[in-house]
Fold these 4 entries.
Entry 1:
Amino acid sequence: MALEPVSVALKFGFLVVLYLFALWIARSALRDLRGAPGGAAPPPDATGLHPAAGADPLGPPEGRLVVDHAPGHEAGMIYDIGEGAVMGRGDSVDIRLEDPFASSRHARLLAQGGIMVLEDLHSTNGTYLNEQLVEGPRPLHTGDRVRIGDSEFVYEQG
């Protein structure tokens, strides 16, 4: 039978393709775990938490959020944060969002020393700081953009 060698060759070809695919998946997963190639890792002591110029490191920062655009809010509306604030769709928040993509208690702003820190409160859709997903406490600096769903705010200090 002339078909038997062709059948065996197709089986081996399929196995080769299958193994190459598995190797490609493993390589991709390892690259994701290690970080992107060529990406410089921050020094081990770099935290990103530093007070803004002129800020009192012992007192709370005088920060505020300015509405860039948000459902149910006028652009330019200002929220003074003081010691901190909770943002979300629920009733027991300091900054109420009328955004269907916001959780009832979505994110928290908290003064830590002379720094204002943004933290996601395990929301469903995430909180973004300068278009990067917030994973853990992140320091805020003047001009930073905070986005929750379709709501976007600009942080100002002083």
Entry 2:
Amino acid sequence: MNEARIDKWLWAARIFKTRSIAADACKNGRVMVGGTTVKPSRNVKVGETVNVRKPPVTYSFKILKTIEQRVGAKLLPEIYENVTTPDQYELLEMNRISGFVDRARGTGRPTKKDRRAMDAFVGPSLEGYGDFDFDADWDDEEE
């Protein structure tokens, strides 16, 4: 086996969790071989370098063995060599340290700030609700 499909290899080498995710990454231009984006059906050979962009990092892998069947995690050093530059890992660490969660406004669970704003909006209208004496109001209308 001298060649393997890139989507199968990415899945078998445990770079992507499923083969369909690997194929989608290829279709969306996030996988490059030799500096050019590739389709999921492209065959890769031993010795080629595969670049995979998983924002904010671009990982680089040198293919040591072409496989199309998924293997255990202990066997991965025989399959590929991680040649990702250290500056890419620094980007990942900077993202982790910053603590900024990139999410669109209004999606997902409310933040603490959002919850406090909702409480401030709803809270005052409910205050004093238990203080109102309904019987006193009815007595006034009968007279």
Entry 3:
Amino acid sequence: MLQTLQNDQDAKKLLNFSVKMARSMLAYGAEVYRVEDTINRIYKSFDNIKAANSLVTYNFVIVSFIYDDTNYTTMRRVVLGEKNLEKISLINDLSRKMVMGGCSLEYAFKRLKEIKNKERYSNWVAIPSLVMSAPFFAIMFGGTFRDSIYAFIVMAVQATFLIIANKYKIIYFLSNFLGAFIATVLVMTLAKFFIIQNPVSIIIVSLMPLVPGVQITNSVRDFMAGDYLSGIIGVQAAVFVSTAIALGVVLGLKIV
């Protein structure tokens, strides 16, 4: 069901809403092509909008359309935040409602604000979830049952550090470097005082929360969608983060 913009104020509201939605999706970890497709579909659901376009990279968002022979364009700079697939899913649901004509712009603004303010999982849920997964991954990566117990301890420390780093807004490169360094030093120190058959398996487990898996996956999907610029930027960012992790491990091994 096609919708109709009534006046200039509605056009400005739609422009403001669409750029906020695009910025939020990208900040939460959505692929570039998904963000562009979502915005374009919303614009196409209005019958008196022409020449709708969106340009998205990992650093900025530009949206534009023509209404009543007037060109409306705006841009927002994007600061990538913590990945949150739940919020991406909620925003996708909101965009589908808009495309189907099931909600007004006022409701869409209100709902987008509610999604933005939605609390993530509490620390009492996040830490046990990470800690409980560690023993199984340690065994999968070649560790013994005893190694899995130490993996449990190391992951608890790693999870606590990541929450503290997120709380104090430590830059992504530094937090990954410190996380890898702390985990490596802790594992190798435990190996000096206790019998650990395969300390490497524990180190690998402790690094898993740091690996930019979502970033790499999104970059590959952007390449496959033909968005080569965003794909290259995403790969470079993933390599940069991976280098920080590697430096942390190497420095930790050298010190211990």
Entry 4:
Amino acid sequence: MEVPLFPPAHEKRYRLVFFSALCLFLSMVEYAIPKPLPFMRLGLANLPALLAFSKMTVGNVALLVATKTVVQGLISGTIFSYVFLFSAAGSSAAAVGMGLLYYGFVRGRERPLAGLVGMSLAGALCNNGAQLLVARFLFFGTAARYIAPLLLCSGMITGLLLGIFAQRFVSKSRWYASLEGCP
């Protein structure tokens, strides 16, 4: 007999807490990986948000991303620094990009026009675009164009790899399949 991960009466609330904790765990794993630029990250902490779109309401996904961003800033000590601005802008833009793709081309369709790989790529590019805008208009001016190729290239690669991982996870995970989707 399988024991459910979440108590049935509070499953949706516990699901938000679980996905938030997973975001924070993956965020801490990311901090252990060296970065060429302080705000350049792999995007591992966005993986639970990518997976959450089909299992949580849009409001809970937004709360998940906000929680991830703020608590990540508190834990890493960057909440009152420029790094937090890059993180907040990037995470918010990634969530909006993935959400627009999900609600416009995936949800409710018998044959979705995009999948997790496309959503992940959209999130990565939106993240990088927002970070470049913050870099351009708040910090580096026109010199931000010099980091654009590196940032966009790394975003494409990590977005593709995370999307492939997410797609394989969803296709093989009995636990993920057992979670109810949101109306």
